[in-house]
Amino acid sequence: MAKSHPKVLDIFSGCGGMSWGLEKNGFQTIGAIDNWQIALDTFKHNHPDALTINGDISQMDPSTVMAELGLEEGELDCLVGGPPCQGFSKNVRAASRFLDDPRNQLFRDYVRFVKAFMPKVIVMENVAEIYNAYEGTVRTEIIELLEGLGYEVEVKVLFAPEYGVPQRRRRCFFFASRTGHKPVMPEPQFAKEDSETVFGTLPKYRSAWSAISDLPILQNGEGTDGMNYMAEPENEFQAQMRKDSSLLFNHISNKLRDTQFARVSSLKAGEDIRHLPPELRPKSGYSGAYGRLDYEGVAPTITRWVFHIGSGRYSHPRENRALTMREAARLQSFSDDFVFLGSRNDQAGQIGNAVPPLLMAAFADNIKACLSHQQQTLSLVA
Q1: CA–CA gap between residue 159 and residue 341 (Å, rounded)
Q2: Is 78 one of the catalytic residues?
Q3: Domain membership flag for residue 311
Q4: Is residue 245 one of the residues assigned to a domain?
Q5: Domain count of the chain?
């Protein structure tokens, strides 16, 4: 008998970074819920057999969704999702953060779906700030709600470079199981420098350049969908990204305006707005604005503003152009066979708002261990 794949439902899914990370590790994605249609279009394109539902989760009946998926309570293997909680984000001024901000309440709808579905395992992701928000009261409430439903819960802020993602990104994860097997957070796989640890030898963080250096050279405004690779992969990360892809999509350079092009052209790798000549320097700008990536370090956090070079370090380290959306996707650890739909701005939003798939992939073995424990227990009972 063929071994079944654990089934995953992705809510607050966006384009599906969490489920893609599990899909690449032997899971089956059966559905997604979000209220962002272009992101759901991308999700459907990459998961053609999954059910996608566009709607406001706060107004949605979970039992109706279960019926559409053909599931009974307790049958779902894994529920994943990242309910938006922008009100906790460090990008919101402290004076403007309020516990009763509607943007901070969606985690309760996630828990409402948990209560209805009673999945065997759940992984909920959020901004790192939720860990300590309001003296930890939000974190504590989520833990207590899940424990009240019979789950063991672990919570930790993970740093993406420690799990092979070539980007500085911190996110908080709630990992919960009701299978009788304790949910264990994944151990770091990389370190700031090559290191010997109790977990073995950890290689140095992957650099941004090591993630994108094999992609075809483009000049400002060049690129088409369905490009051929022009070089062999240079490292195992690139090989992993290319494993299931024969052609490149989303590797298109946005044609910069003359002033933007002049700014990028005047900078060297690693330089930014501070290094622009006076005649090209804008009156104000974000830290790192107009910056080029360098050749050694990890990328800064990729945000939905990655389409605009004035919003961060989003220029190529070698070529006089902005990053393509495929390069941004590589920095988020989306494999090349994941194709983004919509305009460049749409794609940037989907990429920047996603959970890096490799960060989620780090949970795969530990989720399987929880599921396997329940199966073994049921076998003994039978």
Answers
A1: 28
A2: no
A3: no
A4: no
A5: 1
